[in-house]
Amino acid sequence: MPKRALIEHRPWLLASIIAAVAFYFLRDGTLADIWKAAIKGLAVGCLAFYAIKRGAGANATLIALVMMFGALGDMAIEFDFGLGGALFLVGHLIAIWLYLRHPREHHSPSQMALAGVLLILTPLVSWMLSGDPLVTLYSAGLGAMAATAWISRYPRYRVGLGAVLFVFSDWLIFSRMGAIELGDLPHYLIWPLYYAGQFLIATGVVQTLRHELSEEDDEIG
C-alpha cells in the first residue's frame, strides 16, 4: 500500500505500525516503564480502533474487543504477568466465539488435522516449556483460538497464520520460565512475532468484512 494511501485511508494502521516500531526500539532505553507500557498498548490498541472505523456490524465489534483486550494485556503484563495473561485469555475467548460463529464451509483433512495439532500441541508445548499449570490453562485457550482461526471462513494465510505467530510468540515467552535456554532469541523475536500476528488477524478479519459488505451492496444495487 502506498504511503500516501496508508495515511489517508488507514491512519489507525499507520499509527499502530509507528507505535509497534517505537516500542521495539525504546523498550531497552531509559524511558519510564509506564510510558513504555503505554506505547506498547497503543500498537495493538490502534488496531482495535481500525476495526471499528473500517469494519461493520457485530463481527467488527468482536474483533475490536479482541484487539482491545490484547492491548490491555500488553500493558498489564509489563507489571503483573498473571493479570496480563488473564486479559489475553479474555481476548482469546472472544476470538474463539467469533471464529466459531463463522466456520469455513469446506475443510480438507490436512487442514482439519492441523487445527487439531494446534489445539493439542499448544498447551502441551507450553507445559513442557514452563512447567506451570496456569500457563498451560491459558495455553489451552490460546490453542483453541489458533485452531478455530485456522478453520474459520477468514483468510487462512492471514488470520490463521496470525494466530499461529501469536502461539510461537507465547512459546518464546514461556521458554524463559523453564529449563530451555534460547539466549537472546526471545528478546528479539517475541514482539515482532506477536505484533505481526495481531496485525494479520485484525486486517484479515476487517478486510473480509468489508469485502462481504461490498458484495451485499452490489446485490442490492
Structural class comes to: mainly alpha
Q: What is the radius of gyration?
A: 17 Å
- The whole-number mean of residue pLDDT values reads 91
The major beta sheet can be summarized as:
none
Give the ordered list of helices and strands: HHHHHHHHH
| Global morphology | globular
Estimated share of beta-strand residues: under 5%
* Low-confidence blocks of residues: 217-221
Tally of discrete structural domains: 1
CA distance, first residue to last residue: 29 Å
DSSP summary, beta strand count? 0
**In which range does the helix fraction lie?**
over 70%
Total number of helical segments? 9
What does this structure look like?
- With 221 residues, the chain is mainly α.
- It has one domain.
- The chain contains 9 helices and no strands.
- It has helices at 3-9, 11-26, 33-54, 57-76, 81-101, 109-130, 133-150, 156-175, 185-220.
- Helix 4 (57-76) runs antiparallel to helix 5 (81-101), helix 5 (81-101) runs parallel beside helix 7 (133-150) and helix 6 (109-130) runs parallel beside helix 8 (156-175).
- The two termini are 29 Å apart.
Which terms would index this structure?
single chain, 221 residues
